[in-house]
Design brief:
It comes from Sorangium cellulosum (Polyangium cellulosum). Residues 31-58 are annotated as: Disordered. This protein has helices at 4-43, 252-269; strands at 62-78, 81-82, 90-100, 105-116, 126-139, 146-162, 176-195, 198-213, 222-235. It has 270 residues and is an alpha+beta fold.
Length: 270
């Protein structure tokens, strides 16, 4: 039979082994926390601070674009007179000027002029279109080389058409002027900036409206449209990507070390 002293000795050894295991476990768990504290201490008090947003490179900027491309009219000159019977697509060029309202939005004024040659079967026909518009441009990004954008606006259009007698369904005339309202001017494109202040890109635009004033007896409204596509040159006189302060987003300890290194270098030169 096992003696009482032997039982007490075994119990004491068991308790001692359990206590040793608990102490070793606590020490192992404490090490990562201590390492984390040391790491946080090393990185400084600003290690977990949220990185500040990049500089605003569009608000207040004057943005200028020139463009050239192809314009294709469609719709009607009158209720029973499609534009395709008088003119066809031709060269168009224009300019835009805007001012940045925020990081992504620009208020823009625009103007373009299109030369429309005669349509097939109408050798003496021709047309010209002048439009002026106002709208907003939304940029999907800023501060990078490629700048995609989309815009919406409205505008005024003055179009003049010439044709031979009997070609146009209306009174005989050599030059008739139409005044219209572009109720929707939707454009999209993207510009690539090889240098901070100059870019080149592609665009496509759809203008839809109605002629409110037409020559002749028929004064009713007639819906029309213009599709334009081409290339454009973009100019931002204020350089993009202005350098940020040296210590921006840097922890206090790193900034102090950098300052100390500069002071030491200055003292060595002296």
């Amino acid at each position: 039979m096992e003696s009482r002293s032997t039982r007490w000795t075994a119990l004491a050894l068991g308790v001692a082994a359990g206590a040793a295991w608990v102490l070793s476990t606590n020490q192992a768990l404490a090490q990562p926390a201590e390492a984390a504290d040391e790491s946080s201490e090393e990185l400084g008090p600003e290690a977990g601070a949220k990185r500040p947003a990049g500089p605003d490179e569009r608000s207040g900027h004057v943005l200028i674009q020139g463009r050239i491309g192809y314009a294709q009219p469609f719709g009607s000159l009158a209720a029973d007179q499609p534009a395709s019977r008088v003119v066809s697509g031709g060269l168009a060029f224009g300019a835009h000027a805007g001012i940045g309202l925020s990081r992504v939005t620009v208020l823009e004024v625009s103007g373009s002029y299109a030369l429309l040659p005669a349509a097939t079967g109408c050798s003496d026909c021709s047309g010209r279109s002048l439009d002026l518009g106002l709208g907003f441009v939304y940029h999907l990004a800023q501060g990078i080389a490629f700048d995609p954008w989309i815009s919406y606006g409205v505008g005024y259009r003055r179009a003049s058409f010439s044709w031979s007698d009997g070609t146009f369904a209306g009174p005989a005339a050599s030059d008739a002027v139409f005044h219209g309202l572009d109720v929707a001017r939707i454009a999209l494109g993207g510009d690539f900036y090889p240098v901070p202040s100059f870019g080149v890109g592609l665009f496509a635009e759809l203008d839809a409206g109605t002629y409110l004033s037409r020559p002749g007896e028929r004064s009713g409204a007639a819906a029309y449209g213009f599709f334009q596509a081409g290339v454009r040159l973009a100019l931002d006189p204020v350089p993009r990507g202005a350098p940020r302060p040296a210590a921006a987003g840097t922890s206090r300890r790193i900034a102090v070390r950098a300052a100390g290194a500069r002071d030491a270098g200055g003292a060595a030169r002296q």
